[in-house]
Amino acid sequence: MKKKNLSAAVVVAALFTGYGAYDAQRSLGMDDTLLANVEALANNTGESVETEICYVQQSGSPQMSSKKFCDSKTDDTHIYSCPTSESFGGYSELQKDRCIK
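^ thats the sequence. predicted structure below, dont judge the formating
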């Protein structure tokens, strides 16, 4: 009887631990791109990732042109995929970042 209770307790603890990890990942907003970046860093295959320049779109900017605009979540710690095509909008040469080709 004690072995059954112990086994059941271990299974329940494993389920709570798994759900806790899933919930932590979800609450941190870890999306597929971020997880792919983490996985690539963990694998550390030595392969370089090709990047190109994207621009931070700015409404009301005096400079307007067709550019590849960065994902709105791009910052110093997150690099997202480049858009497949250019779009028209305001930008500044001082507000640009990298995106993954």
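The first helix runs from residue 2 to 27.
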